[in-house]
Amino acid sequence: MLLIWTLSLLLGAVVGKEVCYDRLGCFSDDSPWAGIIERPLKVLPWSPEEVNTRFLLYTNENPNNFQEIVADESTIASSNFKTNRKTRFVIHGFIDKGDENWLQSICKNLFSVESVNCICVDWKGGSHTGYTQATQNIRIVGAEVAYLVDVLKSSFEYSLSDVHIIGHSLGAHAAGEAGRRTSGAIGRITGLDPAEPCFEGTPELVRLDPSDAQFVDVIHTDAAPMIPNLGFGMSQVVGHLDFFPNGGKEMPGCKKNALSQIVDIDGIWEGTRDFVACNHLRSYKYYADSILNPDGFAGFPCASYSAFSENKCFPCPSEGCPQMGHYADRFPGKTKSEGQTFYLNTGDAGNFARWRYKVDVTLSGKRVTGHILVSLFGDKGNSKQYEIFNGTLKPDSTESNEFDSDVEVGVLQKVKFLWYNNVINPTLPKVGASKISVEANDGQVFDFCSQDTVREEVLLTLNPC
Ligand SMILES: *[C@@H]1O[C@H](CO)[C@@H](O)[C@H](O)[C@H]1NC(C)=O
Ligand SMILES: [Ca+2]
């Protein structure tokens, strides 16, 4: 008996098990699908019936109520699916579901900028289980998406270049699997914080990688290690363009207390979700906002986030900066190489878009200890006041800083300067800025001058010079 057990165990380890399905083919637990260090458990995916992958089609004609389509010519033909439009799939992750608000809100934002077939992929049948099982079930989801895409191609001569799959967490790897099964011919895959456990460091076969589509872009928002930080997302670069907003590990606004999370605009469930996985969920919120802010998420090439934070990577190089999110595909060098890495800052609550500016202030007037602030006024809007320097204000010295404005000011028209004493100063000194230069992220520089000096807390306006 023991011998038979041992034999079957040995054979099992070598041969592996396999399950086969009519439409989708066979799925084995051979290495690297299972039985490797990153995924030690030999687990097979559930059946297509159990995973129950559903395609919820929203279009500009039906933005609020989906039509459920299946991979069959006549149902697609009788739906609002339009073959002359791009098709964007949105795939959710672990313990999530396809009729969650965030997927539909990505579609709704898309409808405000383009005509598109937006398909929310629901696989809650396979996502509400243990994590290891869910990592296997995404193979079925990927196969189902690939199968539908193949039907689009064969029945409607639909071009795979017009397919874009947006996947969050485990959904990012499901997108990778769909791409692998269509030989990388799909136009684009966007990975929104691709899941780390069972994927980080694994062979390209089982995870999202740049060969899965013509263009792969990735947003990392929870790249701290799983142990001990409970970071759900990959830190590994897995696309052509990999964006690390706010450094990719800790998102601003994610350290709020439980109560402020629960009264979040998205409602109670979203609040609870945010409380446990706020960083991880930021990736799809950034994507949703990026659709409406075509230049509000410029990503800067830089050696590291600390170098970026130390203002060493501004402005954009001559070829420009790619936009994180929806408009990443506009970047001319997008597929020049794999693993191109970019850094940027975002806001701490929606709207997350930010516009980075560099400001140089040449001081005049008295020498005092204090801090200075500058606000920008342009043809598109006016910024808040941002601190440029804090310390000894020396006449004729130039102090520089960069900041991320929540307003794009456009072509600058004037700037305002303000300063404060750090300690009470009874001599009522006056300080000014003889020149302020403002640089936008495209390298355009605007110069402003003034001969005046002002007391603390008094605004000084500088005009173009
Ligand atoms: C400026 O620096 C001083 C001393 O380092 C600090 O106490 C003060 O809070 C700073 N002020 C601002 C507005 O950052
Ligand atoms: Ca892959």
From TrEMBL:
<keyword id="KW-0732">Signal</keyword>
<feature type="binding site">
    <location>
        <position position="204"/>
    </location>
    <ligand>
        <name>Ca(2+)</name>
    </ligand>
</feature>
<feature type="signal peptide">
    <location>
        <begin position="1"/>
        <end position="16"/>
    </location>
</feature>
<dbReference type="GO" id="GO:0034375">
    <property type="term" value="P:high-density lipoprotein particle remodeling"/>
</dbReference>
<dbReference type="GO" id="GO:0046872">
    <property type="term" value="F:metal ion binding"/>
</dbReference>
<keyword id="KW-0479">Metal-binding</keyword>
<feature type="binding site">
    <location>
        <position position="209"/>
    </location>
    <ligand>
        <name>Ca(2+)</name>
    </ligand>
</feature>
<feature type="domain" description="PLAT">
    <location>
        <begin position="355"/>
        <end position="465"/>
    </location>
</feature>
<dbReference type="GO" id="GO:0019433">
    <property type="term" value="P:triglyceride catabolic process"/>
</dbReference>
<keyword id="KW-0964">Secreted</keyword>
<dbReference type="InterPro" id="IPR001024">
    <property type="entry name" value="PLAT/LH2_dom"/>
</dbReference>
<feature type="disulfide bond">
    <location>
        <begin position="20"/>
        <end position="26"/>
    </location>
</feature>
<dbReference type="InterPro" id="IPR002331">
    <property type="entry name" value="Lipase_panc"/>
</dbReference>
<dbReference type="GO" id="GO:0042632">
    <property type="term" value="P:cholesterol homeostasis"/>
</dbReference>
<keyword id="KW-0106">Calcium</keyword>
<feature type="binding site">
    <location>
        <position position="207"/>
    </location>
    <ligand>
        <name>Ca(2+)</name>
    </ligand>
</feature>
<feature type="binding site">
    <location>
        <position position="212"/>
    </location>
    <ligand>
        <name>Ca(2+)</name>
    </ligand>
</feature>
<dbReference type="InterPro" id="IPR033906">
    <property type="entry name" value="Lipase_N"/>
</dbReference>
<dbReference type="Pfam" id="PF01477">
    <property type="entry name" value="PLAT"/>
</dbReference>
<dbReference type="GO" id="GO:0047376">
    <property type="term" value="F:all-trans-retinyl-palmitate hydrolase, all-trans-retinol forming activity"/>
</dbReference>
<feature type="disulfide bond">
    <location>
        <begin position="302"/>
        <end position="313"/>
    </location>
</feature>
<dbReference type="GO" id="GO:0005615">
    <property type="term" value="C:extracellular space"/>
</dbReference>
<keyword id="KW-0443">Lipid metabolism</keyword>
<dbReference type="InterPro" id="IPR016272">
    <property type="entry name" value="Lipase_LIPH"/>
</dbReference>
<comment type="subunit">
    <text>Forms a 1:1 stoichiometric complex with (pro)colipase/CLPS.</text>
</comment>
<dbReference type="InterPro" id="IPR013818">
    <property type="entry name" value="Lipase"/>
</dbReference>
<feature type="disulfide bond">
    <location>
        <begin position="316"/>
        <end position="321"/>
    </location>
</feature>
<dbReference type="Pfam" id="PF00151">
    <property type="entry name" value="Lipase"/>
</dbReference>
<dbReference type="GO" id="GO:0030299">
    <property type="term" value="P:intestinal cholesterol absorption"/>
</dbReference>
<dbReference type="InterPro" id="IPR000734">
    <property type="entry name" value="TAG_lipase"/>
</dbReference>
<dbReference type="GO" id="GO:0006633">
    <property type="term" value="P:fatty acid biosynthetic process"/>
</dbReference>
<feature type="disulfide bond">
    <location>
        <begin position="107"/>
        <end position="118"/>
    </location>
</feature>
<comment type="similarity">
    <text>Belongs to the AB hydrolase superfamily. Lipase family.</text>
</comment>
<dbReference type="GO" id="GO:0008970">
    <property type="term" value="F:phospholipase A1 activity"/>
</dbReference>
<feature type="active site" description="Charge relay system">
    <location>
        <position position="193"/>
    </location>
</feature>
<dbReference type="InterPro" id="IPR036392">
    <property type="entry name" value="PLAT/LH2_dom_sf"/>
</dbReference>
<feature type="disulfide bond">
    <location>
        <begin position="449"/>
        <end position="465"/>
    </location>
</feature>
<protein>
    <recommendedName>
        <fullName>Triacylglycerol lipase</fullName>
        <ecNumber>3.1.1.3</ecNumber>
    </recommendedName>
</protein>
<dbReference type="InterPro" id="IPR029058">
    <property type="entry name" value="AB_hydrolase_fold"/>
</dbReference>
<keyword id="KW-0378">Hydrolase</keyword>
<keyword id="KW-1015">Disulfide bond</keyword>
<keyword id="KW-0442">Lipid degradation</keyword>
